[in-house]
Amino acid sequence: GRVFALSIAEAAQSDNLIQGMCFIAENPVIVLFDSGATHSFISFACVQKLKLPVSYLSYDLVVETPTDGPITTSSICLKCPIVISERQFLVDLICLPLSQLDIILGMDWLSSNHVLLNCFEKSISFGESKCGEFLSANKIKTCLKENEKVYMILACLTLEKDHELSEIPLVSEFPEVFPKDMSSLPPEREIEFSIDLVPGNT
User: Fold this and answer.
1) Burial, 34: exposed, middle or buried (Cβ in 10 Å; 0-12, 13-18, 19+)?
2) How many domains does the chain divide into?
3) How far is CA 150 from CA 18, 43, 111, 119, in A?
């Protein structure tokens, strides 16, 4: 992983970082929107202050920092509920020794939520996804088990008009075979039609 600032002082030296405020369980916390950070992070002090549950990765994550060199950590707050601009997000936050910063939201969160950074005005906005996301049945089951809100839209396709037989390429080549007034399946025949196959012939 990589992060470009571990403190407010370092963040103030960069024009590409945007500082703001978000809420965790109605508690205000200082957040830094960092497009140079590969992951999202939370300070150990914030975790202890808000008594957030901590999990541990099955591996050690090495995070490159601008001043303190590489930092190794395996602590993480999974699906931490964060409220930004009256929108709630469940974010996986890796624990780091941040100074005067509570949370850093990196590219993993910025890209997945279509966040646009305005570095000139020091503001963020949420873009809209151009296409919907298709969820597999297994993913929907996982969301339901985790008590997430799931919305489902069922749609069907209807034809505006009946197609003429002449519009079908294969049918148009044999007009004498297909009657013009055919609107349903042919009637049942008294004698079933079948083709007997002789063994050994293909």
Assistant:
1) buried
2) 1
3) 31, 31, 21, 34
Positive or negative: CA dihedral 105, 110, 116, 120: positive
CATH number, position 115: 2.40.70.10
CA distances from 24 to 82, 94, 123, 135 (A): 5, 15, 20, 28
Domain annotation covers residue 197: no
Mean pLDDT of 67-92: 89
* Residue 83: pLDDT band with limits 50, 70, 90: very high
Q: Does the residue 149 lie in any domain?
A: no
Only one residue has tokens 């949370």, namely 103
200 assigned to some structural domain: no
**Structural domain range at position 105:** 8-128
74-83, 98-107, 114-123, 167-176: least confident range:
167-176
Q: Is residue 202 domain-resident?
A: no
